[in-house]
Amino acid sequence: MIRLHDMRHGPFEAIEELNPRAVAGRLRICITVDTESCPCLPEASLVARLLAGFPGLSRHGCRARTASAPSPTAGTRILLVEGEPSANQAHPLEHLVLDLLGVFEPSVLRSGVTRAWQEPPERNDIFIERRDLATGTGTAAISLAMLAFENALEDRPLTPLFGDVVRVWSVFAQAQAAPVSPRHVAHRSGLPRTRVEQALAVLTDNRLLRSEPFAVHISGETHFRTR
Ligand SMILES: [Zn+2]
């Protein structure tokens, strides 16, 4: 299990030297997570599961720098470090958040940094660049990444559910807070209605969408909108 311990905003300039692609002075979200102390899943297998659900991870660049030689995992350039099981969970989570942000805001290039705590050893800070902290996409990306990550750790399939969740969320992002019906989502996303309903359930359960409680619609359908 991976747990969100804290989330805060700021420039966090001290981490800029850890990633040559970091944009100086850019605002960042820092999430502090506690990883599994005794992961039962090999880290390379975890990354492989994430890659199956999020093929965009295969195109990520990774510039992790460590004292010991890191090695790229199969199918990606996400680097894992021998003997660092906690960082090897947090670092793929960083890439997953970046990948989801890339879906939600495709025109913005961004970078991240993962920094492991010495004590407690399961704790890590993940810094993600944000141009605009006011939008809900940063929180959405973190929530969905945590959820997908938990599914991967528990060996629950990520496909097709999380691809559907991303496509459904994209419809709502384009709607710009307007209420949207499941029928409209199915039309715009090209997904079958049953899969739309499953994706909507994930997004509402994770408080990224809410149903319209009082509106009356001719169609009789419950509409949803972003929070
Ligand atoms: Zn990396």
Order of helices and strands: EEHEEHEEHHHHEE
The total domain count is: 2
Distance from N terminus to C terminus (CA atoms, Å) equals 27 Å
> What would you call the shape?
globular
List the uncertain runs: none
How many distinct beta strands? Answer: 8
On the 0 to 100 scale, the average pLDDT is 86
Over all CA atoms, what is the radius of gyration? 18 Å
Strand order of the largest sheet: 1-2-6-5
Question: What do these coordinates show?
Answer:
It is a single chain. By secondary structure, the chain is α+β, with helices and mostly antiparallel strands. The chain has helices at residues 43-53, 87-104, 137-153, 161-175, 182-189, 193-205; strands spanning 3-10, 28-34, 71-72, 79-80, 112-116, 123-129, 209-211, 224-226. It has two domains: 3-133, no CATH class; 161-226, Orthogonal Bundle (Arc Repressor Mutant, subunit A). The chain has six helices and eight strands, in the order ββαββαββααααββ. It has a four-stranded antiparallel sheet with strand order 1-2-6-5, with helices on one face. It has a two-stranded antiparallel sheet with strand order 3-4. Strands 7-8 form a two-stranded antiparallel ribbon. It is globular and about 60 Å long. Bound molecules: zinc ion.
